[in-house]
């Protein structure tokens, strides 16, 4: 039975397409269905499939570094943490950096404003963390994303 791999680039969070697709190439029955935002991305992925390579030891080390960096921050968008009694839009707040890969910063600042402002109401009660099956550090990531957003919005106003 074949397996379809959705979001092979983690919805835009994983930047190393070479590592993602070479990892999947080890499993010949897996068919990835990546989202594409430019013709260059198609060329890159097709190139990786035209000349498949095994992952090297160095590649595995790089994968492990990425895994440990994202392990407590990678949101799978399952939505189990919602709703927040304080009205924090957790899902959108967690996705800010992934969205940035797809949207122009000036558009992102506008489209994410309400979600990012809602983070100011977080009282760090921890209820969302208890509900998250991946045990993500949700309030910490939200705080970081809010700071990132404010910085972005500041630059955009100049
Ligand atoms: S920690 Fe913050 S975001 Fe999570 S449920 Fe509590 S108030 Fe909402
Ligand atoms: S429960 Fe965790 S993984 Fe799921 S949407 Fe919420 S933060 Fe993301």
Give the arrangement of secondary structure elements.
Blueprint: E1 3-6, H1 17-25, E2 30-33, H2 39-50, H3 57-70, H4 90-94, H5 96-100, H6 105-111, H7 113-118, H8 127-131, H9 138-157
Parallel strand pairs: 1-2
Helix pairs in contact: 1-2
Bound molecules: iron/sulfur cluster (2 copies).
* Count of separate structural domains: 2
- Which ligands, by name, code or SMILES, are bound? iron/sulfur cluster
**What share of the residues does DSSP label as strand, in percent?**
5-15%
How many strand segments? 2
Largest beta-sheet details? 2 strands, parallel
Q: How big is the Rg?
A: 18 Å
Distance between the termini: 54 Å
Mean pLDDT figure = 90
H/I helix tally: 9
**Unreliable segments of 5+ consecutive residues:** none
The amount of helix comes to 40-55%
Overall shape: globular
User: Structural class given helices, strands, pairing?
Assistant: mainly alpha
**Strand/helix succession:** EHEHHHHHHHH
Strand order of the largest sheet: 1-2
Describe this structure in words.
There is one protein chain. The protein is mainly α. The chain folds into two domains: 3-70, no CATH class; 90-157. The chain is built from nine helices and two strands, in the order E-H-E-H-H-H-H-H-H-H-H. A two-stranded parallel ribbon has the order 1-2. Helix 1 (17-25) links the parallel strand 1 (3-6) and strand 2. The longest helix has 20 residues, at 138-157. The chain starts with a strand and ends with a helix. The chain binds iron/sulfur cluster (2 copies). One iron/sulfur cluster is lined by residues 84, 86, 88, 90, 122-128, 138-139.
């Amino acid at each position: 039975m074949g397996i379809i791999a959705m979001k092979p680039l983690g919805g835009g969070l994983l930047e190393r397409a070479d590592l993602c697709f070479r990892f999947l190439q080890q499993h010949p029955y897996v068919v990835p269905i990546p989202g594409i935002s430019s013709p260059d991305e198609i060329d890159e992925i097709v190139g990786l499939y035209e000349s498949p390579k095994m992952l090297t030891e160095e590649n595995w080390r790089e994968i492990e570094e990425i895994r440990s960096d994202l392990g407590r921050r990678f949101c799978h968008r399952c939505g189990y943490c919602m709703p927040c009694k304080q009205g924090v839009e957790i899902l959108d707040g967690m996705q800010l950096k992934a969205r940035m890969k797809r949207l122009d910063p000036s558009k992102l600042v506008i489209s994410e404003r309400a979600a990012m402002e809602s983070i100011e109401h977080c009282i760090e009660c921890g209820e969302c963390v208890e509900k998250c099956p991946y045990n993500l550090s949700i309030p910490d990531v939200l705080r970081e994303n809010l700071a990132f957003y404010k910085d972005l919005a500041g630059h955009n106003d100049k």
